[in-house]
Amino acid sequence: MVTQVAEDTPAARSGLKEGDMLLQVGKKKISDPEDVFDASFYISAGDVVPITVMRGNQKMIFHVHATMHPASRTGVLLASPGTIPGVLPMSLDEDATPAP
Question: Model's pTM, two decimal places?
């Protein structure tokens, strides 16, 4: 799966680049977009997550500091179909300060 990396995010600051071929997030091997969602379920804000990619013919590992997803900063979260109530969405590509 080819990555898309937004500018000035933890992923970008860690060295990931758009076009890197995503191989693994933490311990989860990635073969389709759903695998990224599955891997993110076990990631909490503040975790340092190893991300393995192929860039050209070179395998690389980046350590990304996970942060709160921007949607979790807006107050009440409404669950989407298929999500687990009470679980805040997390993102590897957005900075935020967790609220108390």
Answer: 0.65
